[in-house]
Task: structure prediction
Amino acid sequence: MNGVGDHPMKGGWAKLLTSSVSQMGYVATPYADVQLGGSTPQKTALRNDDRAVYSQALQWVVTGDQAHADKAIEILDAWSSTIEKITRDGETDNSYVALVASWNVHIWIAGAEIVRYYDDGAAGWSDAKVTQFDHMAQVFETALSVWDGTPQVHPDQDKYSGTNCAFSIGLSRMALGIYTNDDTLFDEGKDHLMEPNM
Result:
């Protein structure tokens, strides 16, 4: 990063560059049915691959190297052409699905936003592939929508542990609302963040 000197972001950037998800040889591992219960390979892939998309997109913006944009697009396309649902033990109607998905959705969307819109779409993500990703965005929204707004408070924790749901799901719904230009979805996410316990 040019001109940053000893800025704290310089250390963060250096750390990002050494991550496995930041390498050009990184290979995505998409799944049709993303099972989120426990420590599943699908859960790990969803988490690692979203970070790879975001890292590659950031590297493209900072360095101008088209190879990073191409890698981000490769990962986005691999997942959007494969994913069908996000479940836990085969069930989609589960608040746990919404919570765990929300930890990843906003990162996927942030990467997709950069690739799609930065420098007037200079990354070269085709309209057909963008439309394909719209399907993935809908899978995300389906997963998030099963949460009815009731805080999922663990019995051994205090009442504020439930704000994990409100914040995480609210943030991801806002991100989806921005990406899809859906004001209602954005406002629903914002409302989650404005809950009294937040």
